[in-house]
Amino acid sequence: MSSTPSFAPLRNDTFLRACLRQATDHTPVWLMRQAGRYLPEYCATRAKAGSFMALATNVDYATEVTLQPLERYPLDAAILFSDILTVPDAMGLGLSFAQGEGPRFATAVRDEAAVAKLAVPDMDKLRYVFDAVTSIRKALDGRVPLIGFSGSPWTLACYMVEGAGSDDYRQVKTMLYSRPDLMHQILQVNADAVATYLNTQIDAGAQAVMIFDSWGGVLADGAFQQFSLAYTARVLAQLKRTGVDGKVVPRIVFTKGGGLWLEEMGQLDCDVLGLDWTVNLGKARALVGAHKALQGNIDPNVLFAPPAAIEAEVKKVLESFGTPHRAPAGQPDATGPTHIFNLGHGISQYTPPEHVAALVQAVHEHSRKMRK
């Protein structure tokens, strides 16, 4: 027999139901970067680990920090603690994180020779990620579902060509416009690597997967469709549809700055579209149509306001989506428009943890009232 992991039955499936456009008794909520630097307990664990990579590559630490926000808040999903740059690191580019500096690669991919060396990495080099997925899923013990994730092919390419984060994307756009053939070569390898990576996370126990196209919004119209959207579609086409327990694994795509292209993103073969805070949920719902759940999209900086203001903004976001789908009598799995509450981007490290508690409570309470 194969060594397929077995897990406890899920006790709170609200998030997965909403992903699949089924009725729920409240709007589920989770937060991008919910396991992270705004929590003192995270900072303590990171200090113990000694560095970010030591934290991310240690199964016990990754499990511990993934569960930390769930000990504080009644969130409806957990997300794997990892980094989007694990895949290019496994390609041999030498990832490091200097304190307070963000990610950096020892080798940037800027010429034909460097591009020719790229290949889908051996997934054994990423075993620490898959072991963490299984460990977290076991530690959750059915409390909430676990989301696996990857950076999008384009977002990974930005880091690989720039060699680090960037303000102007000069290196990657120089390649895109002067040597589109090389750019396409990188993106093809990235797309196939991301698909293999996410499928291996699914095999390890991930119950939903998310593609973070964090830098899609920096592209010009036309270039976005050619260099980002097409390769996100290439990933989605290769993804497994069911997990180790035989249940459907929803696929979420989030493009920061992607509001301009919502109609085209609505054609992607995914279940959920994540939106940043510049988009009105009601308008997005009208544009995208009935075939996708929407996720988002409160401005993360709302969390610096006092709890009463946070509550007011939560209501605005929930009401901008409109009345959530309710199942007709006797048809609990009938589908309709659904919403997953989230931030429009990752939570800031300076966020007061008690403000997150106010947000989660407001989402649950107000969304229940909207269903009465």
**Spatial strand arrangement across the major sheet:** 1-4-5-6-7-8-9
Tally of domains:
1
| Mean pLDDT level | 96
CATH architecture: Alpha-Beta Barrel
Question: Helix-strand pattern, N to C?
Answer: HHHHEHEEHHEHHHEHEHEHEHEH
Please report the total strand number as a whole number.
Answer: 9
Q: How far is it from the N-terminal to the C-terminal residue, by CA?
A: 49 Å
Q: Please estimate the helix content.
A: 40-55%
Uncertain runs: none
Strand percentage lies at: 5-15%
Estimated radius of gyration: 20 Å
Our count of helices gives 15
Predict the CATH topology: TIM Barrel
Please state the overall shape, judged from the principal axes of the Cα atoms: globular
Which CATH class is shown? Alpha Beta
Structural class call reads alpha/beta
Q: What's the story with the biggest beta sheet?
A: 7 strands, parallel
Describe what you observe in this structure.
The protein is α/β, with parallel strands linked by helices and 372 residues long. It is built from 15 helices and nine strands. A hairpin with a 3-residue loop joins strand 2 and strand 3. It is globular. The N and C termini lie far apart (49 Å).
Provide the fold topology:
Blueprint: H1 14-19, H2 40-49, H3 52-56, H4 59-72, E1 78-79, H5 86-93, E2 95-98, E3 102-105, H6 112-116, H7 127-140, E4 146-151, H8 153-162, H9 170-178, H10 180-204, E5 208-213, H11 223-238, E6 251-255, H12 262-265, E7 272-274, H13 281-288, E8 293-298, H14 307-321, E9 339-343, H15 353-370
Helix pairs in contact: 2-4, 4-7, 7-10, 8-9, 8-10, 9-10, 10-11, 13-14, 14-15
